[in-house]
Every structure is written in structure tokens, then in C-alpha cells.
Amino acid sequence: MNKELRKPLVAGNWKMNGNRSLVQDFCKSLAGSEQVDIVVCPPCGYLSYFDQASFALGAQDVSHLNNGAHTGDHSVEMIKELGCRYVIVGHSERREDHQESSELVAEKALAVLTGGLTPIVCVGEPLDIREDNKEQEFIGKQLTALFDKIPAELLSQCVIAYEPIWAIGTGKTASPEQAQEVHKFIRDELAKVGSSVAEKVRILYGGSVKPSNASELFNQPDVDGGLIGGASLTTEDFTAICQSAN
């Protein structure tokens, strides 16, 4: 697969962090790039404060339902009106904290695509699965739920983020070789849907990416950028990681 056909993407997931001061710092200090798609995903309450941003915005989650009597949820229409172009769905913390199934994640991804936005669909294995060498089987089931729900022509518009759960916020990082092995597996699974799908879909690595390891990770043939957690909370670190994706 020709990596040059896929523009690198770096997305920062602030999780439940941030404030108006950090928003202002990012709007002032973080510049957009023609070489790399840059996305910042703050908590939903801060999205409207990014009106001066030169980079893209993403939401951290969205409902699979349309507007209506769904207290506490946000629809794709609402997220879109707040200026988002991307939406993270199926992050491991959503799957664990809110018991989101792979089938629900697929429904959310479909709602995002139907609404004209780009889903960043997260997949990845916990430590016990990795230690049993069953990560491909585990991730394969997550992908199958996605493939069963989304037709090929829409699937090619998705972004997939591989996040080894054992490396999120732990300081542990999959080696470049480990990351590449799983990314290639994901691309091979996409190829079963269609070679053009596998060629187009960008696969990001997420799991304690830092300025010191970003270049080596992003240089792997099937790694098209990163979904960044803790290091996305400072403009210096996040800018350095974005530059590593050039």
C-alpha cells in the first residue's frame, strides 16, 4: 500500500481536561499545516471557544441518535454546528466507563459519516489480551462489527486509531515494530473489504506518543499519524508531534 497517498493526521484528545486559557493558547500558538491534518478534540463545552482556530476541531464522542428526548447527549447535527469536522468514537475509556459495545461504536460511526463528518474509530486490546498473544483476534472482532454496519464506500472515509489500552496514560508505548504489526493487520483486514478501502483509510497510533518517540512511530509504513492524549495538553509538545508527522 502506497503510504504517500494518505495525508498524515495528528489528533489531540484532551479527554476531560482543559480550560478557556488552554483554548486561547492553542488558538494563538498552534498553526494549521498543509502537510499534516491537525485536529484538536477538547471537551464539548469548549468547542465554541475555538472560533479563531486555524486547525480542525473534533468531538470526543457523539450520540448515535438524532435530536430528541435524550438527556445529556449530543447529536451529530449539534457537533457539526459547533464547527467539528471529526468525531472520536469507541475510545477505550468510553468502551470501559460506559460499557459501549463494538456494535454501538459502529452505529455512532455510521451516524457521523451520514452527517458528513469523519469518525476516528478507536480499537485496541487490554494488557491481558496482549500477554496471551490474542490482540489480533480481539481487534478483529471490533473491526468486524464496524464492517458489518458500514458499507465499503463509507468505510473508506473513516479514520481508525489503534490504541493499545495497556499503553494509554501509563508511559508505556508499543515499540514501532509492535505498532506496525497491528497497523498492518488492520490494513489487511480493510483489504478484505476492498483494496481501495485499505489504500485510503488512515490508521493512527495512540498510546503515550511523545515528541521523543513520534518520528520513529510515524515512520512505520502503515502508521499514518497519531491520536495523542497527555502530550496534546501543551502546545509545545503537540506542535512537535505534528512536525514529526511531516
TrEMBL record:
<dbReference type="GO" id="GO:0046166">
    <property type="term" value="P:glyceraldehyde-3-phosphate biosynthetic process"/>
</dbReference>
<dbReference type="InterPro" id="IPR035990">
    <property type="entry name" value="TIM_sf"/>
</dbReference>
<keyword id="KW-0312">Gluconeogenesis</keyword>
<dbReference type="Pfam" id="PF00121">
    <property type="entry name" value="TIM"/>
</dbReference>
<feature type="active site" description="Electrophile">
    <location>
        <position position="91"/>
    </location>
</feature>
<feature type="active site" description="Proton acceptor">
    <location>
        <position position="163"/>
    </location>
</feature>
<keyword id="KW-0963">Cytoplasm</keyword>
<dbReference type="InterPro" id="IPR022896">
    <property type="entry name" value="TrioseP_Isoase_bac/euk"/>
</dbReference>
<dbReference type="InterPro" id="IPR020861">
    <property type="entry name" value="Triosephosphate_isomerase_AS"/>
</dbReference>
<comment type="subunit">
    <text>Homodimer.</text>
</comment>
<comment type="function">
    <text>Involved in the gluconeogenesis. Catalyzes stereospecifically the conversion of dihydroxyacetone phosphate (DHAP) to D-glyceraldehyde-3-phosphate (G3P).</text>
</comment>
<dbReference type="GO" id="GO:0006094">
    <property type="term" value="P:gluconeogenesis"/>
</dbReference>
<dbReference type="InterPro" id="IPR013785">
    <property type="entry name" value="Aldolase_TIM"/>
</dbReference>
<dbReference type="InterPro" id="IPR000652">
    <property type="entry name" value="Triosephosphate_isomerase"/>
</dbReference>
<comment type="pathway">
    <text>Carbohydrate degradation; glycolysis; D-glyceraldehyde 3-phosphate from glycerone phosphate: step 1/1.</text>
</comment>
<feature type="binding site">
    <location>
        <position position="169"/>
    </location>
    <ligand>
        <name>substrate</name>
    </ligand>
</feature>
<keyword id="KW-0413">Isomerase</keyword>
<dbReference type="GO" id="GO:0006096">
    <property type="term" value="P:glycolytic process"/>
</dbReference>
<feature type="binding site">
    <location>
        <position position="208"/>
    </location>
    <ligand>
        <name>substrate</name>
    </ligand>
</feature>
<dbReference type="GO" id="GO:0004807">
    <property type="term" value="F:triose-phosphate isomerase activity"/>
</dbReference>
<comment type="pathway">
    <text>Carbohydrate biosynthesis; gluconeogenesis.</text>
</comment>
<protein>
    <recommendedName>
        <fullName>Triosephosphate isomerase</fullName>
        <ecNumber>5.3.1.1</ecNumber>
    </recommendedName>
</protein>
<keyword id="KW-0324">Glycolysis</keyword>
<comment type="similarity">
    <text>Belongs to the triosephosphate isomerase family.</text>
</comment>
<feature type="binding site">
    <location>
        <begin position="229"/>
        <end position="230"/>
    </location>
    <ligand>
        <name>substrate</name>
    </ligand>
</feature>
<dbReference type="GO" id="GO:0019563">
    <property type="term" value="P:glycerol catabolic process"/>
</dbReference>
<dbReference type="GO" id="GO:0005829">
    <property type="term" value="C:cytosol"/>
</dbReference>
<feature type="binding site">
    <location>
        <begin position="13"/>
        <end position="15"/>
    </location>
    <ligand>
        <name>substrate</name>
    </ligand>
</feature>
